[in-house]
Amino acid sequence: MFNLDIINVEAHMDRPHALPDSVATVWGRESGFVQLCFQSRGCRFSDMGSCIMCDYGCGSELTAEQVSNFCRESELFNSREISEILIGTYGSVLDEYEISSECFRIILQRLRESPIQMVGFETHCDTVTEEKLREIKEYLPDKKIYIELGFESLSDKVREKYLNKKLKIANLKQAMMHINQMGFMTILNVLLGSPFLTPSEQIADVVSSVQWAFQQGAAHVVLFPVNVKPYTALYRFMNEGLYRPISHWRVIAALHALSQVLEEEEMACLGLSWYGERTDIYSEEFPRMVPPRCCPDCREELFSFYQQYLQAESGRRRNQLIDNMRTKAMKCHCREEEWSEFAGYTERRMYF
Ligand code: SF4
Ligand SMILES: [Zn+2]
């Protein structure tokens, strides 16, 4: 019997350490959204071997002076073009193992002075405390706040045994209750493409997880297609032929399955991330991340679809776009290959 904790910790061992002067990384700037990721020692769950698909890197603990200098000098906080900022670290921004309370308050103070109206914090549900939430509320009483939590799957088997994620549903529910009671929004991230599942089971897993998330009061759910990251157990499995990166058409199939069961209002709140728009966290001399695959004949259409989907203002429009993408005349062969892999998925159920 193999132990995923050990395999994943071993896989992390050779990952490069973040450069000391790289205090924070900025992702995106399109459509008024920016993600700001502060360097940290790394996710405490990752250090235990949790989450065989994840590597956000490892670095050093920042000093209050470093954070203070960054916040003072970064023009980002003064921008009137940015309407939303997501604050993260290499794991959980509310975890004092990664960001000390002193550093966190410096960030909050800078956000308080900023014109940016919507602020998100990305963190593990076990790090959500009433104290941290109250602190955010005190510093940012007039902002729209959301807390974004990794959830991945409703299935205990998928989450705990296949992905090796250390997360209890009871803890997630409690964190969501505290977040919502504080008047903040909860965003849950769901993974598409778990290892050890058939394509049909992956779709069924996503459908039950997303439905559950909305039923529990998530304001938004974000679908994350698996990107196979170097220095993870999943990357090792891929190299041994035990895992095949998912197709972009599986993303379309998952969105279609979701469009059949969700209300239009829920579809309007179903986001998509890491569909292939992200760049590697490590420089070019290191192994590359593997995003979902497709053939050259459909790539442009798919990326145009993703843009339109994300910009669509209503669930109805999103459903139309999905339908159109599924049935559009195209000379691409990879779509047909993918469809034949999980024909009949609507009749399939997951037995756990
Ligand atoms: S998915 Fe979240 S909890 Fe898991 S290792 Fe990555 S950052 Fe940590
Ligand atoms: Zn194709």
Short description:
The protein has helices spanning 4-12, 44-47, 64-73, 101-113, 130-139, 156-162, 169-181, 199-215, 233-239, 248-261, 264-267, 296-311, 315-327, 334-341, and strands at 24-27, 33-38, 84-88, 118-123, 144-152, 185-192, 220-225, 270-272.
Give a written overview of the molecule.
This protein is α/β, with parallel strands linked by helices. It has one domain: TIM Barrel (Alpha-Beta Barrel), CATH 3.20.20. It has 14 helices and 8 strands.
Please supply descriptive tags for the structure shown above.
single chain, 14 helices, eight-stranded mixed β-sheet, disordered C terminus, 352 residues, alpha/beta, globular, binds iron/sulfur cluster, TIM Barrel, binds zinc ion
Layout: helices, strands, pairs:
Blueprint: H1 4-12, E1 24-27, E2 33-38, H2 44-47, H3 64-73, E3 84-88, H4 101-113, E4 118-123, H5 130-139, E5 144-152, H6 156-162, H7 169-181, E6 185-192, H8 199-215, E7 220-225, H9 233-239, H10 248-261, H11 264-267, E8 270-272, H12 296-311, H13 315-327, H14 334-341
Parallel strand pairs: 2-3, 3-4, 4-5, 5-6, 6-7, 7-8
Antiparallel strand pairs: 1-2
Bound molecules: iron/sulfur cluster and zinc ion.
Residues 294-295, 297-298, 332, 334-335 line the site of zinc ion (ZN).
